[in-house]
Write a structure and sequence with these properties.
It is a single chain. By secondary structure, this protein is α+β, with helices and mostly antiparallel strands. It has three domains: 56-173, Alpha-Beta Complex (Dipeptide-binding Protein, domain 1), CATH 3.90.76; 192-267 and 494-535, D-Maltodextrin-Binding Protein, domain 2, CATH 3.40.190.10; 269-492, Dipeptide-binding Protein, domain 3 (Roll), CATH 3.10.105. The chain is built from 16 helices and 23 strands. It has helices spanning 20-24, 117-129, 159-163, 170-173, 228-236, 250-253, 286-294, 298-302, 320-323, 339-348, 377-391, 404-412, 430-438, 452-463, 469-483, 523-532, and strands at residues 7-8, 37-43, 72-75, 81-84, 87-93, 98-103, 137-143, 146-151, 192-197, 201-206, 219-224, 242-243, 262-276, 311-312, 352-354, 357-359, 367-371, 396-398, 418-419, 422-425, 487-499, 503-504, 534-535. α7 packs antiparallel against α10 (339-348) and α13 runs antiparallel to α14. It starts with 6 loop residues before the first strand and ends in a 5-residue tail after the last strand. 49% of the residues are buried.
Length: 540
């Protein structure tokens, strides 16, 4: 996956696991019963390189969450509810230029010593010194029951990034270079210690002395391979407990094989728009954008591959389930496909329908190629459905498909008409969602949108305190509906597949206590998940 925070739809390639014998094997130091081992299909690359540096983009999954703990997070599966970690609460002051974090006084490092405010101060100071913190932090000091951070400008919009800082012990890190240190013997405060590491598997062992609670899952294996077919087989054989992959026909290939134990819960935490290249005519014309938006049946797009995983979304890009209080009633539901209204909008841009072709005054047909990754069957299916619907309105729409490297290169060079592959994460503060999509300063924004009103609205939301964020967000929603800089289509679902054969207590739509992202199980999300599970044969 790219180091950029923009996610590419399905760019987390299909992950699977080793053969059952390899995935479940244990050494003498590890758990002796497979009933106490939880296996996660978490990687697509064939070989893992040992790296347990929580500051490194190459750190292996589990480094943060299982070994090192974060301060806090927000649950994207449950309306961004606060999730405590090492910090039990946060309090803003000085108009967003000050933040006090109350720390859990029970926290201890795995060597038995206390985790103190000094360790938190050290972590932030260390990150600032090594330019690892893209925040306007000026000072951090121990203060009462925790620490107080000061900023040069309001930091309201950065609250999730602040919470996701993983705290490290001064005694281990004071003399380390975070750019080169792989930290082969990590010492954290989390519920697990590092076990065996191979090229295809990383094992984590439950700590008997974890400070928060007893750890119910005694061993976790994060494993890798690249075969979707193998993953489907091993999920059916209950050799993998947790996975995400673009397996086709999930219902018949997995759910129906054992309805009592095989489960799917699509976590919808990001939005996939149709992105038009606004640097090119006629896509710089708002009537063209509105016409294309009205020509789409979003429900059909959402169900083009594994029905039920994706979900149609309204014109603001926000879901009514999570953000309903912020969205005007008229914009809560997805746009209804209306080809008559679409043609009326396109007519204002100079296009008329002749012989089934939408042409301009010179007889040139409106056409666009939709850029997506050819190797992802799900991405191709969604994009092709978009193209088919546009073609029914007289637009010549095609999906040639490109290799991942060509996709990234063409998008980076703005060599495209349209893109249907990028997804934008909501997060706890919608500034980051809209900034990443609309700001010309965002490396994730590829459309070429430059608008003074949008910049002003983003600045206002960045500085808005919690009580003013709703009003500031609605200004950006109005830009989305009136000017249509992007065309929201669907909410991207991560097909979280899990088995209750060995473990129960999984989060679900009825009990969304955490966000289980098997493609990157880490942080507070992972810690909450694994501390909440119970062996299936447990009476507790």
């Amino acid at each position: 996956m790219s180091a950029r925070t923009r996610t590419v739809a399905s760019v987390v390639s299909a992950v699977a696991v080793l053969s059952a014998g390899t995935a479940a094997c244990t050494s003498g130091e590890e758990a002796s019963s497979t009933s106490s081992v939880l296996t996660v299909a978490a990687y697509s690359q064939p070989t893992l390189q040992a790296n347990f540096n929580p500051f490194s983009p190459n750190a292996l999954r589990g480094t943060v969450g299982l070994v090192y703990e974060q301060l806090f997070d927000f649950n994207t599966a449950d309306k961004n509810q606060f999730m405590p970690g090492l910090a039990t609460k946060y309090t803003w002051g000085a108009g967003g230029r000050s933040l006090h974090l109350s720390l859990d006084s029970r926290a201890k490092w795995s060597d038995g010593t206390r985790l103190t405010a000094d360790d938190v101060v050290f972590t932030f100071t260390f990150m600032k010194a090594h330019k690892l913190l893209a925040l306007p932090l000026t000072t951090v000091v121990a203060d009462g029951d925790g620490v107080t951070l000061s900023f040069s400008s309001p930091a309201y919009s950065q609250i999730q990034q602040l919470g996701r800082v993983a705290v490290v012990p001064r005694k281990q890190w004071a003399n380390q270079n975070p750019d080169t240190y792989i930290n082969r013997n990590p010492m954290g405060s989390g519920p697990y210690s590092l076990g065996r590491v191979t090229g295809q598997q990383v094992s984590f062992q439950a700590r008997k002395d974890y400070w928060r609670q007893s750890v119910p899952v005694k061993q976790i294996n994060y494993v890798t391979t690249s075969s979707t077919n193998l993953l489907a087989q091993q999920m059916v054989r209950h050799e993998v407990d947790l996975a995400y992959a673009g397996i086709p026909n999930l219902k018949s290939q997995y759910l129906d094989k054992d309805p009592a134990h095989n489960h799917l819960w699509p976590i919808r935490a990001s939005m996939k728009p149709l992105l038009l290249n606004l640097r090119r005519a006629p896509f710089d014309n708002v009537h063209v954008r509105k016409g294309i938006a009205l020509a789409l049946d979003r429900a059909k797009v959402a169900n083009a591959y594994n029905p039920g995983v994706y979900q149609a979304v309204g014109p603001t890009g926000l879901t009514a389930q999570s953000w309903g209080s912020l969205i005007p009633d008229a914009d809560k539901e997805p746009l209804t496909q209306n080809r008559t209204a679409a043609l009326q909008e396109l007519a204002q841009a100079g296009y008329t329908l002749k012989g089934g072709r939408l042409v301009d005054a010179k007889g040139k047909q409106l056409s666009l190629e939709i850029l997506t990754v050819s190797t992802f069957a799900d991405g191709m299916a969604y994009a092709q459905e978009v193209a088919d619907q546009l073609s029914q309105s007289g637009i010549k729409a095609t999906v040639p498909g490109e290799a991942p490297s060509a996709y990234v290169a063409d998008e980076g060079k703005h060599n495209f008409d349209a893109v249907f592959g990028d997804a934008y994460v909501y997060g706890s503060n919608l500034y980051n969602f809209y900034w990443s999509m609309l700001s010309p300063d965002s490396p994730q924004s590829v459309i070429g949108w430059k608008d003074a009103g949008t910049t002003a609205a983003l600045d206002a939301l960045a500085k808005a305190d919690p009580s003013g964020q709703a009003q500031a967000t609605q200004a950006l929603e109005k830009i989305m509906t009136d000017q249509v800089p992007t065309i929201p289509v669907v909410v991207k679902g991560t097909p979280y597949m899990y088995s209750t054969t060995r473990f129960t207590g999984w989060p679900s739509e009825k009990n969304p206590y955490t966000t289980p992202d098997p493609g990157a199980v880490s942080g507070v999300y992972a810690e909450k998940l694994f501390l909440s599970l119970r062996p299936a044969n447990s009476k507790g």
